[in-house]
Amino acid sequence: QKEVEQDPGPLSVPEGAIVSLNCTYSNSAFQYFMWYRQYSRKGPELLMYTYSSGNKEDGRFTAQVDKSSKYISLFIRDSQPSDSATYLCAMSAQNSGGYQKVTFGTGTKLQVIP
Amino acid sequence: GAGVSQSPRYKVAKRGQDVALRCDPISGHVSLFWYQQALGQGPEFLTYFQNEAQLDKSGLPSDRFFAERPEGSVSTLKIQRTQQEDSAVYLCASSHLAGTGVQETQYFGPGTRLLVL
């Protein structure tokens, strides 16, 4: 069983829809929870990160973390065709070397249809 | 300012050939990470450098994989005697600080797409 589980999709929605992306995890040591967006043939770029449980909002994007359930979500409001990409959840824990080691989910491919 | 750059962007190798993949991190970034991303998968950690010191190489799949960052800036990932299972995108990421225990944003390069025939 992987430490981080994410439905690979693909997920296809009409423009303007609310998108919900989710991940579950098993490692209680994870402290930081991140969402990356990856366009085709590009490297991942950080969208948002949160520390511990709670919500964080940035424009059309809202990230939620529920540590008690080991479940994180990303909501995209008023989705746009430009949001079409693969969304990777990622989590990190303090490593014995003193740095935060990041573990990624498999990514969910999202397509927003105009 | 320039982001993280990687070269070559694409590499086709015959099985058994050695390859070298280069990463130019953002200037002044202390931390540098290499990841391997197989088709349809998320990036998997390979190794971590803090300046020139390789502090973690636990993700390297075999002793055919070797990484270095001799002057604490540019890094090279070398794969000896390539195998078909090495086909993947190799991503490099850098971040500003290190060892603070705080999650630092990692900035990724575009990756090198390696195909081993």
How would you concisely characterize the structure shown here?
The complex is a heterodimer of chains A (114) and B (117). Chain A is an all-beta fold and 114 residues long. Chain A has no helices and 11 strands.
Descriptive account of the structure:
- The complex is a heterodimer of chains A (114) and B (117).
- Chain A is mainly β and 114 residues long.
- Chain A has no helices and eleven strands.
- In chain A, strands 2, 4, 5, 9, 10 and 11 form a six-stranded mixed β-sheet that branches.
- In chain A, strand 9 (85-94) and strand 10 form a beta hairpin.
- The model of chain A has no long low-confidence stretch (mean pLDDT 93).
- The mean pLDDT of chain B is 93.
- Chain B is globular and about 40 Å long.
- Chain B is an all-beta fold and 117 residues long.
- Chain B starts with a strand and ends with a strand.
- The A-B interface holds A 4, 6, 8, 31-32, 34, 41-46, 49, 51, 88, 90, 92, 94-95, 97-107 and B 4, 31, 33, 40-45, 48, 50, 55-56, 91, 93, 98-99, 101-106, 108-111, 113.
Q: How does the major sheet of chain A shape up?
A: 6 strands, mixed
Low-confidence stretches of chain B: none
Tell me the structural class of chain B. Answer: mainly beta
Mean model confidence by pLDDT of chain B: 93
The number of E-state strands of chain B comes to 11
Helix content of chain B: under 10%
> What is the count of β-strands of chain A?
11
Q: What is the strand content of chain A? A: over 45%
Low-confidence parts of chain A: none
The number of distinct helices of chain B, counting runs of at least 4 residues, comes to 0
Largest interface pair: A-B, 30 and 28 residues
Sum up the overall morphology of chain A in one term: globular
Radius of gyration of chain A: 14 Å
Structural category of chain A = mainly beta
H/E order of the elements of chain A?
EEEEEEEEEEE
